[in-house]
Amino acid sequence: DTGVSQDPRHKITKRGQNVTFRCDPISEHNRLYWYRQTLGQGPEFLTYFQNEAQLEKSRLLSDRFSAERPKGSFSTLEIQRTEQGDSAMYLCASSLIRSRASDNTGELFFGEGSRLTVL
Amino acid sequence: AQKVTQAQTEISVVEKEDVTLDCVYETRDTTYYLFWYKQPPSGELVFLIRRNSFDEQNEISGRYSWNFQKSTSSFNFTITASQVVDSAVYFCALKGEYGNKLVFGAGTILRVKS
To answer: Which of A27, A34, A112, B20 is least enclosed, having the fewest CB within 10 Å?
Structure first.
């Protein structure tokens, strides 16, 4: 399978615990995004990486959230001291950004998401 | 600020009916990109189409067609002769010329009954 893969698919945890999600993008893609989706809503942007550099973070990404992409390949999203409000689907997406702007079509390729339930 | 509004929360149709999903957007960019994604129960968002703001030609792909109207800031999506497999949540999204992320609407749940 050469698509975006996420692990774990489901995570149930108790309030106050730490959780970590992993995303493996499409191999040649240099850009990686994290989005959060709550019930009945569209995906909301959290952060994105260009290779290993984290270039933008949303205000939604509180201090308890940290994301890394250490070698410009896979990425991790860690949530510390989870709260019930963190319960959501965490979506990862990737894209290929080319040096010529007119070649960039903008669409993202998404994984199946990691569903977090905080009890 | 950029915003996408999908006013229809949920639509139910009977198989073989045509259905149109509405999308209205707001942006100050003169160049922008519009997208439709499908999210089946498995959860993965599947890319359907991208449209550039400078290309107002409507597009048809099989049973799918898209109507882009800059004058009303709308990018509507029609499924002709709907099928049960079309049941999913459909999202409209917007990306500005200099933006690096997609802004999504809240989605429309489409239920196609046999």
So the answer is: A27
